[in-house]
Amino acid sequence: MKTIIPAIGLALLSLSAWADEVAIPAPEEVSPTAMIVVVLLMVAMVGGFIAFTVLKDRKKDK
Fold it and tell me: Is 24 in a helix, a strand, or coil?
């Protein structure tokens, strides 16, 4: 078991040498509306998480 884990790591690192042969597709244009929606969702989730932890901490203090 001690020799399998480093062997797997070396095998995965050697695969990156073959990555040059793969053609990378050109990036597509992203609509600004989609970016705004994604940013707003991320801000809302982070804000919700912070509110959840603060409220949970306040309940614990009481």
Answer: coil
